[in-house]
Amino acid sequence: MRGAARRVVWAVMGVAMLGALQGCTFFALSGGGPLTREELGNWAGMGQWPPPEPRSLRRRVQRLKTIPVPAFRIFGGEYGYTEGPHWISTGVPDAWDVPLAPVHGYQVRGTCSLWLRLVPSQRAGHWLYSPLDEGQREFYAGETAWGMGLFIGDFLFSNTKAQAFDTMRCEHVAAQQLDVWLGWGIGSTRVRRVLPVDADGKAGLHALADPKKDVYDVRYDLRDGRTLLFGLLGWGRVNRRHYLQLLWIPIPLGKAAL
Q1: Dmax over Cα atoms in the chain, in whole Å?
Q2: What is the C-alpha separation between 147 and 124, in angstroms, rounded?
Q3: pLDDT per residue as tens digits for the range 123-170
Q4: pTM for this one?
Q5: I need a labelling partner for 167 at 20 to 30 A (CA). Which of 57, 70, 215, 233 fits?
Q6: CA 204 to chain centre
């Protein structure tokens, strides 16, 4: 039994190490950023969704506000938590992640059917980020996804895209996209993410909590990277710089065109 337990421990440690190595190590660098709103350009190729129609957005927001916190309703596809992310999320962008979380000082409510992950399918999610302190900005994120289903299939082939908006003015404030091909981390995995940055340099929707702050008054953090073999090889961009990654070592290539 002791030998079997030891093997289990080593296996868990090995998986954890591979998980830590997966992804772009150059994402830990600043890349000469953050960027101004004008410098974002096409938001790392994600573009900008058309803003939600105000009336339908208000109805969606009111519906999301009826979800209690905490909540984890598998059959209803409803989730609610404070700051988070919920235990269903790993806390890093992956095939099951809650988009743009965690959001410090906010409650997050969302609807996204867990059961659609049983089959290859197109899915949609809707998420509301409500401030714990009154008078602060509220955010809505729309999410679209396609995955192979069977739960583990999403970690083999999937595409997830989310974009966040200020619920009052319907202004675009953040975006995230994940593309998985031939296995999460093993094959080609691409992560793209744009978030506003607060005065302390921390990225997150909370950076725009003050409704008096215009979306053009803050700077934004842009990260776009693709990796193979748990990050053994990778390349991409962080803010103003391009990088190559070999053996998990980031190598700066030069400035990105703005």
Answers
A1: 62
A2: 11
A3: 899 999 999 988 899 999 999 989 887 767 888 888 999 999 999 999
A4: 0.84
A5: 70
A6: 10
